[in-house]
Amino acid sequence: MKMRNPPVNSLSLEFLTELLISLEKLESDKAFHAIILTSDCPGIFSAGLDLMEMCGRDPTHYAEYWKAVQELWLRFYLSHLVVISAINGVNAAGGCLLALSCDYRVLADNPKYAMGLNETLLGIIAPFWFKDTLVNTVGHRTAERALQLGLLFPPAEALQVGMVDKVVPEDQVLSAARSELAQWLAIPGHARQLTKSLMRKPTADRLLKERDADIQNFVRFISRDAIQKALRVYLEKLKQKKT
Ligand SMILES: CC/C=C\C/C=C\C/C=C\C/C=C/C(=O)SCCNC(=O)CCNC(=O)[C@H](O)C(C)(C)COP(=O)(O)OP(=O)(O)OC[C@H]1O[C@@H](n2cnc3c(N)ncnc32)[C@H](O)[C@@H]1OP(=O)(O)O
Q1: What DSSP element (H or E) covers 203?
Q2: Distance, C-alpha 206 to centroid of its chain
Q3: CB 67 within 8 Å of CB 215
Q4: What distance lies between CA 137 and its chain's CA centroid?
Q5: What are the distances in angstroms from CA 8 to CA 3, 15, 101, 162, 185?
Q6: Domain segments of the chain: what residues?
Q7: Measured between alpha carbons, how far is 149 from 16 in angstroms, rounded to an integer?
Q8: Could you tell me if the CB of 49 is within 6 A of ligand 1?
Q9: Which CATH number applies to 2-242?
Q10: What ipTM did this prediction achieve?
Q11: Are 62 and 223 in contact (CB under 8 A)?
Q12: Tag placement on the chain: N or C end, fewer CB within 10 Å?
């Protein structure tokens, strides 16, 4: 699955919906057993959630957007398919969440390709299920430091803290993901799938039990004047970079 939403693969409502439909199609076709998730945007895996969806819109839109973000995470996190990410670019916040929801992560060895949950740098907070997904991957202490400081880890550090499983030269990221896949596909499917569910269901259940409350919290939080201002300032900084 090659993500293509130029220029930065930001996860707009339309793009989230496309990803969700693609994933559902692959999951319902018995011929498919695995997905390699990668990017078609040079140098960028994903810039994360689309800030334009969270800025200057109305509460109904925020609720619809957040429901789609929840849906995509639940679907990826609990997918019965083997999902491996071949991370071939910088990967921030919501994009990093997608990669963390995969079963295995290969990252291209380029110091520009940092990844992490950098929400605090925007003046916002990673929701509890983003946090839980990170804790499940790197452990509590590393996650606490990474989340508070909004750290984006370059490849060697991402590997060292366990945020990715392998770092390879840029031209080998897809072939390394394919080689890894062979090992996962050699395991009897039902046993692997049930084990994945055993490991992940408690984390997913937390959100499933609180989905509506989580949407309401998000809408309340994102609608605040101070948060809207912080997001506008961040977007402005991104644009000013060019001048
Ligand atoms: C109580 C609590 C309850 C609930 C929790 C509440 C809130 C939590 C909510 C949400 C969690 C948020 C998750 C996120 O994912 S937020 C997004 C975080 N992403 C980033 O910080 C990355 C920002 N982008 C960049 O750093 C760079 O763009 C990047 C390194 C990816 C690429 O750099 P490059 O120089 O190649 O391109 P740019 O010129 O910067 O960008 C091109 C173009 O794209 C626009 N852009 C970039 N990122 C985004 C984005 N995430 N959303 C929308 N648009 C984006 C950028 O402005 C440029 O636009 P233009 O100038 O018009 O061409």
Answers
A1: helix 189-209
A2: 18
A3: yes
A4: 13
A5: 10, 12, 20, 25, 31
A6: 2-242
A7: 27
A8: yes
A9: 3.90.226.10
A10: 0.98
A11: yes
A12: C
Tell me whether residue 189 is one of the annotated catalytic residues: no
118 in contact with ligand 1, CB cutoff 6 A: yes
> Rounded to whole angstroms, what are the CA distances from 60 to 54, 66, 219?
11, 10, 8
Pocket of ligand 1, candidates 16, 49, 237, 238: which has the most ligand atoms within 8 Å of its Cβ, to mutate? Answer: 238
Active site residue 118: yes
For the chain, 243 residues long, give each residue's pLDDT as a single digit of tens: 999 999 999 999 999 999 999 999 999 999 999 999 999 999 999 999 999 999 999 999 999 999 999 999 999 999 999 999 999 999 999 999 999 999 999 999 999 999 999 999 999 999 999 999 999 999 999 999 999 999 999 999 999 999 999 999 999 999 999 999 999 999 999 999 999 999 999 999 999 999 999 999 999 999 999 999 999 999 999 999 876
